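A brief tutorial aside. Many learners find it easier to grasp structure tokens once they have seen a single protein encoded end to end. The record that follows does exactly this for Phospholipase D/Transphosphatidylase. Read the sequence first, then the structure, and try to relate runs of similar tokens to stretches of the chain.
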Amino acid sequence: MRAVASLLIVFVLGMILGAFIGVYVYSRYFQTGEGGLMVNNTCSLNLLLDREYYDAVLGTLGSANRSVYIVMYVVKYDPGERGDPVNILLETLTELKNRGVDVKIVVDDTTYKSYNETIYYLLSLDIPVRLDESSAVTTHTKMVIIDNSTVILGSHNWTESALMNNHEASIETNCTSIVSKALSYFDNIWAGSRSI
């Protein structure tokens, strides 16, 4: 009987101690913020669902001071539709470029073949846009890096349907290790990219 009581006390104390450790770790490293998760004091993750992506990208682009690097499978400029969300994003990139922000874009051949007006529009505004390293390679990445400090990546292409109608999911983060890896990834793709 005494062994069962001792075992029960150890079990209860272990549960209490485990609960305290769990609460401490959660409160220190995983704090929920508005719409996101604070991993620690310097690193956050924010899930961007459906239309939330457009507002997040537009807002983050608007605060860019140094650089915007984009790898995007499909970018669809629509010259006939003034309020198209992609057009607004591209106009924002133009404003940034005119302010001296380093803007670079790599797209897959799909953009060039299906929406070449996008390519010529960007080139006409002196925004460097290039194709990935080969037509035999599909660059299905959808990634935006702002000021070497924020990465937004996920399923959203820059098309009106992806930004306004589709079910899409992306992540926005400022976690240094992820941003660093994304920058390295972009640099490798840019270094091997093709001129148009």
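Self-check: The radius of gyration is 22 Å. If you spotted this yourself, you are ready for the next section.
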